[in-house]
Design goal:
The complex is a heterodimer. In chain A, about 50% of the residues lie in helices and about 15% in strands. Chain A is of the alpha/beta class. Chain A folds into two domains: about 170 residues, 3-Layer(aba) Sandwich (Rossmann fold); about 130 residues, Rossmann fold, CATH 3.40.50.2300. Chain A is elongated, with a radius of gyration of 21 Å. About 0% of the residues of chain A have low confidence. By secondary structure, chain B is mainly alpha-helical. Helix content of chain B is about 75%, strand content about 5%. About 5% of the residues of chain B have low confidence. Classes of the chains: A alpha/beta, B mainly alpha.
Amino acid sequence: MKKIMVAILMVSMSILGFCAERVFYYVPHAGAGDPFWAVQKLGWETACRLLGVKGIFVAPTVFSIEEQVNMLESAIAARPDGIATTISSDTAFDAPLKRAKELGIPVFAVNIEDYEPPYVPYIAYIGQDEFIVGEVLANRVLQEFTPKRAVIGIHQPGLTCLELRAEGILRVFQNRGIPIEKIDVTPYPTQALEIMKAYLARYPDTEVIFTLGPLGAHPAIDLVKEMGLKGKVRLATCDVSPEILDAIKNDLMICAIAQQPFIQGFLAAVWLYLYVEYGFLPPAKMPTGPTVIDKFNLDIAEKQILTTGGL
Amino acid sequence: MIDFVKTRFLKIEHRYFPSVGVLGSLIIIGLVFGFITNKFFKLDTLAGIFTITAEIGMVCIPLALLIISAEFDLSVGSTFAFAGVLGALLLNQRVNSFLVLAAAIIFGICIGTINGTLVTKLRLPSFIVTLGIMFILRGLLLVITAGFPVSFKGSNMLLFVLNGKLTGEFRMSFIWLILCVIFFHFILNHTRHGNWSLACGGNVDVAQAMGIPTSRVKLINFMLVGATSAFAGMLSFARFGMAYPTLGEGMELEAIAAAVLGGCALRGGFGTIFGASLGALLIASLRVGLVLVGAPAYWYRAFVGLILLIGIIINKEIMRQLVGGEQ
């Protein structure tokens, strides 16, 4: 019943947008209310407006592969000119994307690509390589100094993109022979802070705490402030929030990696248009990050937050 | 041996026996962690454990009372988050600090009232009602915050009173936890409401036949759960100066696990506040202890599951041996 309703909704939305020359769908794995996806949506809508196409953004309220696949199937049923989606599960997306290919609907992967063969069919990927994110973050820290020990606080163990970021960091540090390990800090701020504190008690020689997103970074910032560890324990993280920018400004954090979500949504629409309208062939991967935000480029980073709402 | 324990201790308070399993687990875990690392019993470590315990405990202790009266509340995590976000929004509007706290608690009571009314008046299962309220609150949080964290920058007396540093690494939340334990222990063991809660959970038809206002008892328990969940959300907000819409997701299960570890019978009628608070302490000790002993990072969840199962088996066996009932 739910699937039928979503299909009806999408077909109606397509009909309503019949006057637009082209109709594109963006079906990510999460959307409504999530600041990261709010910025993506803004980028997508901005590009669609500039290009004069009908851009329809549909997403589950919270992360749900099943709901995303249902929406994707409904979008395919609406026979649009192109679809952008996040490959949140290679197995779940195989059948619908094969069907889209059979129907001649071009599909671009955005934000999450298919990490392992056999790859699901899509034309190209727009986003960042999460493994490289970890490597870039680790190398930027090593550019600053060589810590005696480091730890990676992962707030959602098992989430592929976070695990890949962690793997990238681990690879760089292990190659340099620096002791490093992952710990499950949970998404709960109180627990995250106390777990990191316990880790520092066990390994007092820890000089860097890596976190993989704001849910881990915010408690880490509070930990350094509360325990007066500024200069002794330094932080580095992925993704950006006002608190993280403050921490960079105040020398609590070395850097943060931004993947520039606005441009992911924006480029998804642009590339669909270029592909459909002019037959441009994109490269297999079009990176939008990793971009290192540190105290040397804070001004321009703040401008992006001001104009697009996120980074 | 069992007979000796039975005759010797049952005369004292057999209702405290559910706590034996969790107490035993706690002692064993404490000894193991203490043996492996001398850092486990350091004051700073204990302070960290109590800080985590306070947050889980403030939710699981009233929840234990509700479970004892044979009802559930899955909306505690979303009430927790909503109260934190509400507190941040109101403080940013320069509303008087203690009015902010009052507003958050009243909000929690309202949620409890809605839950309780739907369960008792419409005879709906609490599992479904509170699940629905949980989704509604999470949805509203996303709408209100647009998914962004809500921060309060600045100092405020309320933040200190709720969760400021007390001494060393000990925080005010520890005091609130102790007050919460005393308050709910008193309610359960020394008031008519506590007795009625046990009766509601034991056999609601018999309780009604005896003239116990079962609906009112359950409604009050839902309200208490709502109030303390909101208060716990304010504790979290007070420490970090921010709250976000996904705060406390999954907390309901952790709180239920703590209450069950503490000996609460899931179908009601049995359990103690002391046991539930030990359940929260056990979960917090595992969190910190596993990191301190350098256990592989991803073992925590498996350990909690294992301890939960062992704890329940021990509790069931103790109850079977001592009370002879099927708890």
